[in-house]
Specification:
Layout: H1 5-8, H2 19-39, E1 44-47, H3 62-66, E2 70-75, H4 78-90, E3 96-99, E4 113-119, H5 128-138, E5 139-148, H6 153-161, H7 163-169, H8 177-186, E6 189-197, H9 209-215, H10 233-236, H11 243-248, H12 252-256, H13 259-265, E7 268-275
């Protein structure tokens, strides 16, 4: 969770340096999405809401588009939607980017998408029950919901420091499994898998390390030289083909840590749903 992103998201469109944490997160998400696409016949994808809590907005589904999937994004900020569409055009990728005032009604046909998903975004829906009813209506095969790991030490610490803004700007109840799993079940969808995800060998501080260390008077631990910028956009532009493998070298906790450890260290959880009756 990184509450400052609510205010700082525009700057990433000018400077896509997301740092190591978000860069690692991007590749881990891409790997999960690729695995889902190998397990189910996926050709059409909806990401809604598209604004989550990671640096450069609207790029979570870029890898799916580069893999040949037809991608649609929904956002609730018209200026952000326009910036996202421009970014995708700069990569010569097709995108249906739309802005909605509310997620209570989604402007799509029944069963229009094979996969619908979102990342750290459920708390932007005003009425999560109406949103999930709409999402299940328009989705044919798979729904993926990724939410912050509320039992993680990083989330707990950030929730304490940002409690006022968390309560005023976000619907925290929406990201609780005990909230959305019963709603999905009511809509005829079952959770076939859930797990921890985004478990790197560093804590979920949700802010630049310089700011985090300064809170404790430890900024002297930082190197004096300016760190090298890190952006997955270089990979998407074809300029850094080794980027994914470089991030995966840091995934040893992701692969090997026991579930009990991840419960308190992982940054996110994911929940994968399919229809109870796929032929209905």
């Amino acid at each position: 969770m990184a509450i400052p992103i609510l205010h700082t998201w525009p700057r990433y469109f000018d400077d896509p340096d997301e740092g190591l944490g978000s860069s690692y997160e991007r590749i881990i998400i891409n790997d999960l999405l690729a695995k889902i696409c190998r397990s189910f016949p996926i050709s059409t994808v909806l990401e809604a809401p598209a604004f989550g809590f990671t640096g450069l907005s609207g790029i979570n589904s870029l890898a799916l588009a580069q893999a040949g999937k037809s991608v649609t994004l929904l956002d609730h900020d018209a200026s952000r939607t326009e910036k996202i569409a421009d970014l995708w055009r700069s990569l010569s990728l097709n995108l249906d980017a739309q802005t909605v005032a509310s997620y209570d009604v989604l402007p799509f046909e029944d069963n229009q998408f094979d996969l619908s998903w979102n990342f750290s975004a459920l708390w932007f829906t005003g009425n999560v029950e109406k949103f999930l009813a709409q999402l299940t209506r328009i989705t044919r095969r798979v729904i993926l919901l990724c939410v912050p790991n509320r039992s993680g030490l990083g989330y707990v610490s950030q929730a304490i420091m940002g409690r006022a803004e968390l309560k005023s700007a976000l619907n925290e109840e929406h990201i609780k499994a005990q909230t959305f799993i019963p709603i999905m079940k009511k809509q005829g969808w079952k959770c076939i898998k859930w797990d921890f995800i985004d478990c790197p060998p560093w804590p979920d501080i949700g802010m630049p390390k310089e700011k985090f260390l300064s809170l404790f008077g430890l900024q002297w631990l930082l190197p004096t030289r300016k760190p090298t910028p890190i952006s997955i956009m270089d990979y998407y532009r074809g300029e850094d083909p080794e980027f994914p493998d470089a991030m995966r070298t840091r995934a040893w906790l992701e692969r090997m840590a026991p579930s009990l450890f991840k419960r308190f260290w992982a940054h996110h959880r994911y929940y994968l749903f399919i229809p109870e009756d796929p032929d209905a």
